[in-house]
Amino acid sequence: MDNQKPNMTRGQYRKEHKPFYKKAPFIIILVVILIAIIAGIIYWSVGNAHKNNADNDNDRVENVQSNKNQNSSKKNSKSADSKSVKKGDQPSKKDKKSDRKKQDKKSDKTFNNPGSYKNLDYKTDDFEFKMSNDVKLVKDSNGDPALLIKYTYTNKTNKAQIAQKVQTKNMVLKQGDKVLTPTGGDGDYSSQVSSTNMNEVKPNTSFDGALLVKVNDANSDVNMYFMNIKTNKFLDTMQPFKLS
Predict the structure, then answer these.
(1) Rounded to an integer, what distance in angstroms lies between the CA atom of residue 126 and that of residue 201?
(2) Is the dihedral of CA 208, 214, 218, 220 positive or negative?
(3) CB neighbours of 226 closer than 8 A, spacing ≥ 6?
């Protein structure tokens, strides 16, 4: 029995009764599926190959690791350097012990004469001040009363010294309880006072100098005290100067 419809051509009939696998929609779907499968295979292959290459690229991995190690070592090096600098800035226990030994050695210096005074003569192992009998009450550059004491200074050390600095450090003049301060000279003795304050005296040489101090009362006695250069304490003896 022929089921062909009366109004259908033979070509139309064949087209309508094609097997499903020959129909266009099926073929299109099949092609799309195949393309998707192929694309998936290609993507997987490329990804897997990239992963294998990354795992097998020893140079790249080592370089990255090396950079990290270098950065880490640089940080550690900077940290170590910083610590060593900070540590070096402070004296070590050994240095402190050495400094203490030097100080102890200095304080333990042997003195034959750390300080003595007799008959206007102040002597130590480092220097000597021989006071003159020519002690005068004069006027300073401001017209105020001042005491002028001339002396001969002898430098017994191995370094040049300024007589005025040695005198100021080791000799004190007082009127009552007040320490008398140096003042500027006037007249014929001003140059001698100035040279005493400025000129250096070479080792084992002597210098004729003078000191000038302002007095608070022209009628009160002035007392001169002398230092023990080892103990930095005053000697038991002192020299009084009567102004009236």
Answers:
(1) 13
(2) negative
(3) 115, 117, 122, 170, 171, 234, 235, 237, 238, 239
Half-sphere exposure of 184 (CA within 13 A, CB side): 4
235: tokens are 């000697």
pLDDT, residue 236, reads 95
- What is the C-alpha separation between 92 and 74, in angstroms, rounded? 27
Q: Are the beta carbons of 222 and 175 closer than 8 angstroms?
A: yes
Task: Please tell me the distance from the alpha carbon of residue 242 to that of residue 244, in angstroms, as a whole number.
Answer: 6
pTM: predicted TM-score of the whole model, two decimal places:
0.57
Look-up: residue for tokens 């009567």? 242
Beta partners for 240? 223
How far apart CA 137 and CA 146 sit, in angstroms, is: 6
Query: How far apart (Å, rounded) are the C-alpha atoms in residues 205 and 117?
Result: 20
Residue with tokens 């402070």: 90
pLDDT tens-digit readout, 103-128: 555 567 899 999 999 999 999 999 99
CA distance 182 to 179: 10
Residue given tokens 């320490």 in the structure block: 179
DSSP for residue 180: P
Neighbours of 86 (CB within 10 A): 9
Q: What angle do CA 72, 75, 77 make, to 5 degrees?
A: 105
